[in-house]
Design a protein that fits this description.
213 residues; Rossmann fold; 2 domains; 13% strand; elongated; disordered N terminus
């Protein structure tokens, strides 16, 4: 369902004239890697197409799998403000952290009416062929998620077949000890520190004790 909604969003994406673009480049390490190689090709391509470069966003020394990339975060924020008509990258793996992140980010750009172009991959989501390629990428992401879910389920079945207990280990709480500490006037924070259990757990155990009439 989610993939169908994403495909619909892309199909409805504006294919108007691109006038202003943002460039994005990334290198994983600072050792002998320079984003200028990527940016030079992107500038040349933008110049040939007659596009104005609004800003160049560069993440240096940042892994592609890293959850937070300052320049990429700023780019997505500026896309929300429609500062540019398209995002231009050297290769698609410079942009996406993972297949899932790539699909979500491209869908977000499409919803904002911002085109995405990967120079070396010959991918332009403002064209019908580009949108078709995105649907294939989305299908691959869905397939990847299904494989991961199946591996998890298989692991759980295997663990259960071997008699392993799944989930958090049960915390054994001495109810009589809690009652004794409360009777001596100890606070819940003191009981928590004394027994090494959470305040909520101690309170639930205490509340379940039979009341003496």
């Amino acid at each position: 369902m989610a993939r169908q909604q994403t495909s619909t969003t892309l199909a409805q994406q504006s294919t108007g004239t691109i006038a202003q673009v943002a460039l994005y480049a990334r290198v994983s390490t600072l050792n002998n890697q320079d984003p200028e190689m990527q940016l030079a090709e992107l500038r040349e391509y933008a110049g040939r197409r007659g596009w104005q470069i609004v800003e160049e966003f560069t993440d240096q020394g940042v892994s592609g799998s890293k959850e937070s990339r300052p320049a990429l975060n700023r780019l997505m924020s500026d896309a929300c403000r429609r500062r540019f008509d398209a995002v231009l990258v050297w290769k698609i793996d410079r942009f996406g952290r993972s297949l899932k992140h790539l699909v979500n980010a491209l869908a977000e750009l499409a919803a904002l009416g911002v085109a995405f172009i990967s120079l070396r991959d010959n991918l332009d989501l403002s064209t019908p062929s580009g949108r078709l390629m995105f649907q294939i990428i989305g299908a691959m992401a869905e397939f990847e998620r299904a494989l991961i879910q199946e591996r998890v389920r298989a692991g759980i079945r295997n663990a259960r077949a071997k008699g392993r207990r799944l989930g958090r280990p049960r915390v054994i709480v001495d109810a009589s000890r809690i009652a004794s500490l409360r009777a001596r006037g100890n606070s819940w924070s003191q009981i928590q520190a004394e027994l090494g259990v959470s305040k909520g757990t101690a309170q639930r155990v205490f509340a379940a004790l039979p009341k003496i009439v």
